[in-house]
Amino acid sequence: MSHRTSAMLEKSITEHYLTLDQPDNRIQIMYIWIDGTGEHLRCKTRTVDSVPKTAADLPEWNFDGSSTGQAEGSNSDVYLYPVAIFNDPFRRGNNKLALCETYKYNRQPADTNHRHTCKAVMDKVKDSHPWFGIEQEYTLLDRDGHPFGWPKLGYPGPQGPYYCGVGANKVYGRDILECHYKACLYAGVKIAGTNAEVMPAQWEFQVGPCEGIDMGDHLWMARFLLHRVAEDFGVVVSLDPKPMPGDWNGAGAHTNYSTEAMRNDGGIKVIEEAIEKLGNNHSAHIRTYDPRNGRDNERRLTGLHETSSIHDFSAGVANRGASIRIPRHVGEQGKGYLEDRRPASNCDPYRVTEMIVRTTVLNEVMKA
Fold first, then answer.
1. Which whole-number Å values give the CA distances from 52 to 27, 49, 141, in the listed order?
2. pLDDT at 4
3. Beta strand pairing status for 338-340 and 202-211?
4. Roughly what angle, to the nearest 10 degrees, separates helices 174-187 and 214-233?
5. CA 81 to CA 116: how far, in whole Å?
6. What is the pLDDT of residues 145-173, one digit of tens each?
7. What pLDDT is attached to residue 3?
């Protein structure tokens, strides 16, 4: 089946129905959750009779976990607990999007529900006020799996003119970027910016600064909105860390991080201490930074294309080839934040942020 099926439908007909008046006491809530892959999202909609002010106002729900890789058919119900709500940029009005945690039949967190432990850790370190900002890179693909806009029987010119590029021969798919940006702003996602990336058809958006659990909530919702916007265009979004082999950049989720102590005067000392702790736990972090225990990142973290080697830990000021980069202005001001460049584009931000806090604030030592 063509991935362009959705885009081929007549959108003006859809618009007629989407603009019909909706009763004030009939609100559409789209429940969204992470499926059994740990990197893909699912959704379904129900009607409620009042506008929810918080996620706690929404009822729990369930779904067939045997169809999402989260349960067996003989015991398939998986529970959905709404944890964060956002405005719905597709249905608009009073309708909402609800990000949910998943729980098994016995009310234990599902295997890919990493928000549960992340929230507990963030609550434990709340007095440190951990802030995060994640740079989400992604690649647009055509229906045949080939990068969007690339020649079908060849390749575009070498990397160089595409990063932050302008012009039809340098960037492919900007409409999706712009629509996604506006959808995030409408929804209430803390999107901070966007840019074209080094490989053609590769883009980036940034989310943050977010404190604690909000980082994972807002990035996952931003990802959902990206997939949903691209669906309308009949284009596929890939979060694969190395979508094209060869002399092409991979895709990451560079994670900017600070605590209140790092942001205060003299914070560079705290940053350096945190980097030492991160280095001592390098292997454990690598296993957490993609859904396949580091196997995805092996294709990306080669020491080439603005990456460090997956096998080595390094840090430096303004060094995009290091595991941890200290921005130049942070080095000059003696306070601020660090950038962990190791997380893959398809990482789970709950796992990444939890791991960073466990290492740098709780001083936990992970098994190599």
1. 9, 9, 36
2. 60
3. unpaired
4. 130
5. 11
6. 999 999 998 899 999 999 999 999 999 99
7. 52
Residue with tokens 């966007």: 194
**pLDDT at 368 exceeding the cut of 80:** no
Please state, in angstroms and as integers, the Cα–Cα distance from residue 10 to each residue in 5, 112, 143, 177, 226, following that order.
11, 37, 19, 22, 21
Burial class from Cβ neighbours inside 10 Å (0-12, 13-18, 19+) for residue 247 reads: exposed
Residue 326 is encoded by which pair of tokens? 């200290």
* Greatest pairwise CA separation for the chain in angstroms: 60
- Cβ contacts of 170 within 8 Å, gap of 6 or more: 161, 162, 196, 200
Q: Does the pLDDT of residue 245 top 60, yes or no? A: yes
Which of 301, 284, 279, 281 is closest to 345 using CA atoms? 301
CB 131 within 8 A of CB 353: no
CA-to-CA distance for 56 and 40, rounded, in angstroms?
24
CA angle 251, 304, 300 (to 5 degrees): 35
